[in-house]
Amino acid sequence: MLIESNENKELDSLLFFLYSKLNEKKMYLNKYMAQKAIFKIKMTLGKNHALTESLPYYWYYYGPFSESVADSFNLISDYSNDLNIVLKYPEIEDIVDNLIKNKNFFYNELPIEIYKKFAPYNFQYPFKFKIFDIVDKKRNIENSDDFINDFFQCESQLPNDSYFNEYSNIFSDFLTKLDLINEEHQMGKNWLLLRNPIKELWFTFAKGLRVKQKDEFYNYNTKIWDLQFKESLKMMESYVDIMEDNLKEHSKTNNKYTLLGENILNATVGTYLRSK
Hints:
The chain is mostly helical. The protein has helices spanning 9-24, 31-45, 67-74, 84-88, 91-100, 103-118, 124-137, 144-155, 165-183, 191-212, 222-252, 259-274, and strands spanning 58-60, 63-65.
């Protein structure tokens, strides 16, 4: 039986050991890298290792996420020199040393490796790094044809899982309209209006993803997570239905968002900020 995160002494000890080893190399540890590093350690240990059960995860917006790791990280400054984890599991030291020996790998390549090696669906890597990251970081689209081609590649790798059937249909409808916008050379003009709905495609998928890809520790959340996924599906379906009309209205108003457009954007961002 898994222990609650605030009583997870083995996780606390593991996280502090990682933090200490990074300090020795004058490397930092933020909450995002803590999630990925502990997940990588967990996967290296293997599912049958005694420590693995103390490291519960589910897949979400930015990869594997553990509420227990988040809780432990928030308390890391309160830890004493608790390195008992290595006394109990000596193999941890070599695993951590290998993980942090290369700064570029730890900070830049590890997130990519996690998606490539451990993501449960092939769809995740291309959509996260070729679509989501583009719309999340760029305020202008440089090559819309390449972007659309990457989008179609993602469509070809949508999960073959009946739980995601409705999502796949919405994704394909959205892409069909996005492709038409590109063919009419309107992608650049409407890029700012399209960015958040495209990101919401990813956030919506992630809400279903955590329902399907979680450790048993999080089973108590299944019903509420399923409900949140279905609510996001309804919102995306509504947006796709009025997508063309909304863009036409946007064009008529001298590049100012329509009230509906603003509501869509606010809803997508708000949904993300209010959710874990």
